[in-house]
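Protein in question quoted for reference:
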Amino acid sequence: MTRRELDAAGITDPALRAAYTRCRQLNARHGRTYFLATRLLPPERRSAVHALYGFARWADDIVDDLDQRRTPERRDRELRRLESDLASSLRTGVSAQPVVWAVADTAERYGIGHLLFADFLSSMRADLSVTDYPTYADLRGYMRGSAEVIGLQMLPVLGTVAPLEEAAPHAAALGVAFQLTNFLRDVGEDLDRGRVYLPGDLLAAHGVDRPLLEWCRRTGRTDARVRAALVAMEAMTREVYRTAVPGLALLDPRVRPCIHAAFTLYSEILDTIAEQDYTVLRRRAVVSRRRRAAIAAVGALRVAGARWRARAPRHRAATGAPVVERKGSLR
């Protein structure tokens, strides 16, 4: 499948093909939900998505690795080296680092703004020193670089049926919705890293502070106040999902099954959290393998339908049958 994707994308240089393959391997190993949805994209778009994921994963691993021997100063040096390598590759078109080369090539092919990568790395650097966010507005400032830019980077790769600037706010909102979902799912693991991504004002409104969260993590017990705060965080996250919904219809019809599947998969993480009574400080909520397979199967049917609709007008034109235009549907 890798060879088919690379051929479809017009990536011919053997070393560059190897660089993209490395990104695909990172996606397959670490981004189960993301990788599954990516399989629903047209083959020529997948390599670019793998490159964007691979770069984001590399930077994220620098700041999130639990190896205590990697001090904040060392992590900062690694991030700055990555930033320097990317800047050089964006300028020259080559890099000795496979993941950097692939993402720089993707940026060139799809005209992805370089400032988006700078904003992303800035938020990654914040993780080295910022351990909590007093207000939701503060958290949104962080998510500008850690989540919104991911949606904006993806948009030129996916393609739209409307001007990019019309689709951009919805793409950014979807990136935020996905990250808020991760924050809810990973509360316990983030605490182990010394961070809290639940807004301080939301926690305080329910009588929750960091020591209480740490107590729940340490004992495996759930406090009613913590549960109430998590319920409120879930409601806020679902509202962001609703903001993102109109953007799905603005995407290229061929990529809608992929994004619809990702939307459904991430939304169902919230469903799982609720079904498990918000015990995220004790265990990680995961959508079952069977359910992920079912959503992927529905996505595959949507892909087949989109291909059929794309071919039907050409077939009718060739046979002399009248051509009837229909608007695409996400139902």
Remarks:
- The radius of gyration is 21 Å.
